[in-house]
Write a structure and sequence with these properties.
This protein is α/β, with parallel strands linked by helices. 32% of the residues lie in helices and 17% in strands. It has a domain of 172 residues: 3-Layer(aba) Sandwich (Rossmann fold), CATH 3.40.50. Strand 12 and strand 13 form a beta hairpin.
Length: 452
């Protein structure tokens, strides 16, 4: 009887996913779905497998553990230390020994009893893991950024649509009321007609040893590389941190074989808010120009600063800057943050980062919204919002469409920073206008046997 109930629930969710295109579903869901008030019966919970359980993966995994509607039943990582720690963490939380550990994500995904997956691997693995999950009917919470090539994003979009995947992108700032308020003020004209959006973020690291080193014990390095080129392991490449840095980041996010650097890895957050708050003003074709500065030595090779200007056919302008200094933004908006999004209009501005939202005039922040105003999705819990969407087969707050839009902008920005010349982007065609050399930078090969 117990097994029959569990199977029928999962079969029902799968059938809903398979026919989602023919059903009238809620376009958005809040973060207060059924079951939030009490612990669900074990066979009614959404079972979750976590792929990539390093620091970021464990942080998101804890949000699943904290929600009574979900149950983490499996973890996966190619680093034995991370894998063992995550499994023990889950078992301690549930006071059981039921969490299974896998070194190969395909074994986790093959389990019929897993409803959804959290994917928090290094960037170059994001889409391959997500594709495998979508094709067997699992819902996906995918850490940002999405694909490193346009072909990856296109393949994932086709699979998610074909299999009715509930897809949540890890742009969790959308589930913070500060960001929603700033975007609603911009959307509803409280700053007047939108003229420009300023976005800034931290930058990539530089340096890193290029001398071959022994692969650390407990790391399956060949699998970690996966579709990326086969190169010798070097110190701190994927298992350690910069020894001298006050910020303990691994260096793989700053190596182009695995990442677009923090143009995408960090920039995706304030850029996503820019697109959310600007709406149609930052949509469609655009021109982009500017340049970035890149390391000349060491393992790291992604931009260590950039200053890009994007001009849309709507007349709106987006300035995207990566800088280790917040001086310009402190002077303009009174913020000390190394990241942020600011909307400027004819009658004022509103600026938001993870610490505060500010505006000029200040009274704008106390604006009342009426029945005719644009109201964005209300969520205060990104994982909870994802679970809500699974429950009703609706669209979460960071769906695939918004992930594709911001990921494309990140990738185009990465190319523009590297080539240092004006480029015209054809949004419908998904490529640059009359620039084949720039187009080639949108794609990348995968090491055999990995393929889309």
């Amino acid at each position: 009887m117990f097994a029959s109930k569990a199977f029928s629930r999962r079969g029902f969710l799968r059938s809903l996913g398979a026919t989602a295109g023919a059903m009238a579903l809620p376009s958005v869901v809040s973060a207060s779905g059924p079951g939030a008030g009490g612990r669900s019966a074990a066979n009614e919970r959404i079972t979750v497998g976590c792929i990539g359980v390093g620091n970021q993966g464990r942080q998101v995994m804890q949000n699943f553990l904290a929600d009574s509607r979900a149950q983490v039943v499996a973890v996966c990582d190619v680093k034995q230390r991370e894998l063992d720690y995550a499994r023990q963490f889950v078992d301690r939380h549930y006071r059981t020994s039921g969490c299974r550990a896998y070194a190969d994500f395909r074994e986790l995904i093959a389990r019929d009893d897993i409803d959804a997956v959290l994917i928090a691997t290094p960037d170059h693995w994001h889409v391959l893991c997500a594709l495998a999950a979508a094709r067997v009917g699992k819902d996906i919470y995918l850490e940002k950024p999405m694909g490193l090539s346009r072909e990856e994003d296109q393949a994932l979009g086709r699979a998610a649509g074909q299999y009715g995947t509930v897809f949540q992108f890890g742009t969790q700032q959308r589930s913070d009321p500060k960001f929603r308020l700033a975007c609603e003020l911009a959307r509803n004209g409280r700053i007047g007609q939108l003229k420009s959006v300023h976005v800034w973020s931290p930058v990539s690291g530089s340096g890193g040893s290029t001398a071959p080193a022994a692969v650390p014990e407990g790391l399956d390095y060949d699998t970690w590389l996966g579709p990326a080129p086969r190169v010798p392991y070097t110190e701190h490449r994927c298992t350690n941190v910069f020894p001298d840095s006050p910020d303990p980041y691994k260096i793989w996010p700053f190596i182009s074989d695995y990442s677009l650097g923090w143009v995408a890895g960090w920039g995706v957050h304030p850029l996503d808010i820019a697109l959310w708050g600007a709406g149609d003003a930052l949509a469609g074709a655009f021109e982009i120009e500017g340049a970035g500065r890149f390391p000349t030595s060491g393992a790291c090779d992604t931009a260590v600063d950039w200053d890009l200007t994007v001009r849309y056919r709507t007349g709106a302008v987006l300035r995207f800057k990566g800088t280790p200094s917040a001086d310009e933004w402190r002077a303009r908006y009174g913020t000390r943050s190394d990241h942020g999004t600011a909307f400027e209009g004819q009658e004022g501005w509103v600026c938001v980062d993870r610490s505060q939202v500010s505006a000029e005039p200040d009274g704008m922040l106390r604006s009342a919204f009426g029945a005719g105003d644009v109201r964005l999705v209300r969520s205060v819990d990104h994982v909870g919002n994802f679970l809500d969407a699974i429950g009703c087969r609706g669209e979460p707050i960071s769906p695939f469409s918004s992930a594709l839009a911001v990921n494309t902008l990140c990738r185009v920005s990465s190319v523009a920073a590297r080539v240092g010349r004006k480029l015209a982007w054809d949004d419908r065609a998904g490529k640059f206008v009359g620039d084949e050399s720039a187009d080639r930078l949108l794609s990348r090969a995968m090491r055999s046997p990995w393929r889309l």
